[in-house]
Amino acid sequence: MQDIFERMQKIIAEQFAVDAEEITAETNFEDDLGADSVDLVELVMSMEEEFEIGEVREDELSGLTTVGDCVNYLTKKLDA
Predict the structure, then answer these.
(1) What is the pLDDT of residue 59?
(2) How distant is the alpha carbon of residue 74 from its chain centre?
(3) pTM
(4) Neighbouring C-beta atoms of residue 45, cutoff 10 Å
(5) What span, in angstroms and rounded, lies between the C-alpha atoms of 70 and 63?
């Protein structure tokens, strides 16, 4: 799980031009990073590529509002 978090930190830091050390599990994409819908689509595409999980369904996206949500989602997806 820590590995997934660290990989997500790297993706988010690159995409949003922030220091990876500032990103925590509680970091909210919209509130803390100012992400809009285009940013979130790009982030999901990066997640799909980095973790080789296939396409994330739109109904799964609504629950992914923080970095921790994404880490939990990826952990479940990769363990399945």
Answers:
(1) 87
(2) 9
(3) 0.91
(4) 12
(5) 9
